Amino acid sequence: MENYQLSVTHLQNFLNVADAGPLAFFEKNLLMFPEPKTASGALGSAIHSAIHQAYKYLRNEEKLPSAEEVLSWFEGSLKDQRLNQTDFNLMLKRGQKALEIFYARKKDGFSSQDKIEFGFKSQGAVVNNAHLTGKIDRMIISGSEIIVSDFKTGKPIQSWEPADTYEKIKAWKYRAQLVFYKLLIENSRDFGGKYMVKRGVIEFIEPHRERIIDLGAEIKKEETERMEKLINIVYKKIMALDFPNTSSYSKDIKGILAFEEDLLKNIP
Predict the structure, then answer these.
(1) Quick one: which H or E segment has residue 147?
(2) So what's the pLDDT on residue 36?
């Protein structure tokens, strides 16, 4: 545990009592129990790879690749995921449809100045005593400000306060991700002290009724301070191998927020 760095995925696994919370973190992230690759997970990886390659092409050639090239990169990456033939065919069709629409609508906003799939493992990001890491899909640099962006596949959510029980947890995850990334960037070697992150956006790649949805957020001071406290509490518990029993919390967003509040109340 000496060189442990906390990622937003680890943090959320610890806090998400709807999915076993600290126990899930212990099994997935410390013991690293193997998890089967899902077809939808393979789709997400292949789409991310195609977008990454589109940006590499833009930087190297100083022009955007054609849609046909992007779709070819997607198909090649999907083949590398080693899905069975049925899943491959389904994900290929689904991904091609999504990428065609997404790329047509979004490509003019691509810039060679954007940072794509930027990894923070060697950036020395520390919040109080917690060492942080992560990989950010896209950082859009504008003057002294960075807009942080995360690409998502799957069904879009259209509001930060959805009515659906499952979507409430997704909204919690997405919002927390953007706030965590603000702290990651602003406390990193290359960006800290030079850039501010005031805004984030979740970019849904798969269209909803032929419409591409972006879910943006102004990142507030209060939620940043709250996230900072949660990061340090969870980091200390992980380092002490202290994994609380969360079986008494409800398996929904109310249970997650109640667990967070209990952690915050017990700050030493």
Answers:
(1) strand 145-152
(2) 81
Q: How far apart are CA 133 and CA 114, in angstroms?
A: 19
Q: CB under 8 Å to 64, separation ≥6 — which residues?
A: 54, 57, 58, 107, 110
Residue 212's nearest CA partner among 98, 110, 58 is: 98
The secondary structure element, H or E, covering residue 117 is strand 115-119
Average pLDDT score, the chain: 95
Q: In the structure, what pLDDT confidence band is assigned to residue 2 with cuts at 50, 70 and 90?
A: confident
Contact between residue 28 and residue 11 where contact means Cβ atoms under 8 Å apart = no
From CA 120, how far away is CA 146, in angstroms rounded? 15
Cα of 92 vs its chain's centroid, Å: 23
The alpha-helical segments, DSSP class H, found in the chain are 8-15, 22-25, 39-61, 67-80, 85-106, 165-186, 221-239, 253-265
